[in-house]
Amino acid sequence: MPQVPQTFFDALAVRTWCGLALAALGRAREEIDAINVYPVADGDTGTNLYLTVESAAAAVEAVFAGHETGADLGTPTLGEAARAMAHGALIGARGNSGTILAQLLRGMAQVLADDHAAAHTDGPGLCLALRRAADSARDAVAHPVEGTVLTVASAAADAADAAEGDCGTIARAAYEGARAALAETPGQLVALARAGVVDAGGRGLVAVLAALVETFTGEAPRGLTASETQVHARVAAAAGAEVGEESSAGACAAGGPAFEVIYLLEADDTAVARLRTRLDSLGDSLVVVGGDGLWNVHVHVDDAGAAVEAGVEAGRPYRIRITHFGAEDAHMAGGAGRPPRERVQRAVVAVVPGEGLAGLYTEAGATTVLARPGEPPASGELVDAVRRAHAREVVLLPNDADLRHTAAAAAEQARTEGVRVALIPTRSAVQGIAALAVHEPDRRFDEDVVSMTSAAGATRYAEVVIAERQSWTMAGICQAGDVLGLIDGDVAVIGSDVTAAAETVVDRMLSAGGEMVTLVLGDEAPAGVADHLEARVRESYLAVDTVVYRGGRQGALLLIGVE
């Protein structure tokens, strides 16, 4: 739970701020979604900001958990917590607003983590962090537009610069400066003036800064009123009439690009500079944030394939997300008179650990959420996937025992939105494959869920991984670098050779019987391991079939399922 107030900006303050900001955005999410009209009126700014901060908060919690349970006991340093916050926001950034917020947090982290030995910073240090945040976010946007979150961030930094005092004083000054700037946004951007609202991204930033004030003072500042976020129509119209043509050129029009493309990118600075130029020529709303070899790319384009190809030329894009604005059924600019897209009756939403399995699941008709090693999806991402599935009934496959509570929270949220959701507690992707194999959308929902649950439950699962550190296990003490074979979540084999350990695991699983062995190979699995295991099964176990899939970067060297 967040602890307030905090005297200095230290690791605990970072943790507290993330928790309070997440709660604040949770309360304001629907309101922010409702006033989202720029750059595309797709009604998701509040949700995107929430998901971005949720990812940042989870990364900070992971750092604290590592210090509480690892060899390096104690509290993380300010630098560790700040870098975790920035990295979590970067990998979890959603939409235009979330991407910019990720860069704001990265800019702050660059200052907060500058002195690696520092336990905390004070008011002047917070001022520097807010200034770096505003400047770096503006630099990340290809064509900055006033009246947006960039304007609000700059105003917050300006107000902080003009104040003197401790972190609480600086945070309050930044909040008041941001709040005043937010009220002026309808006079700077035609799209806002016409809609009679303030900028949604700026509104979200004000909520985040309010949480910063509460972190250092223990008191939440006075919240925004409805009249402050939805300005009077006459005032808005008058303000809009005074906005120049330069600003109106940035207003979202019905003829804007058809797709939003977002992906994480591993690339060097030189390649990213060329990528910016290429994407800028393809579309608009271009934001590229990050650094140190990892970037989050966001752009609106008509040719989504070209935007992804540009990423491939620059480096290695992954977590690629393409949204067709025309396919959405609410809040779309220029969508008046267009009938809503009809919901399908039933869909499957599954969390998968690698790109290869994501393709397999997608081919089978599932909507997938990619969980990269060490980066489990948040509940908001699962809710978003349920929405993308656009179905009346959804079967949710978490495919990870540690995601069961996250998936349950997502299912509960989706139910409040009118979707019938059944959560099948699959603990591995191979159990999900078994469930998906018997999925029949044409039969009754309850019957389909029972059949899928039965298939998953009848599938034993295992994985072969490399131990990261010395630890006690059910099979004895393992050392860093040992090969571990886990069956149904428990370490059953400790060895030095991947192929030999995998063979032992398969033998133990088949000793209890089985009809089908599923092997999912990770990118780092040794060559020939699948052929060896297939031969072993064929020679030693009559009437047992083997199927092999490529999982990609899935964390485990090998996933094994026995039905």
UniProtKB/TrEMBL annotation:
Organism annotation: Streptomyces graminofaciens
SMART domains: Dak1_2, Dak2
InterPro entries: DegV_domain_contain (IPR050270), DhaL_dom (IPR004007), DhaL_dom_sf (IPR036117), FakA-like_C (IPR033470), FakA-like_M (IPR048394), YloV-like (IPR019986)
NCBIfam families the UniProt entry points to: YloV
Name of the protein: DAK2 domain fusion protein YloV
Coiled-coil features, chain-numbered ranges: none
Record-annotated DhaL domain positions: 12-214
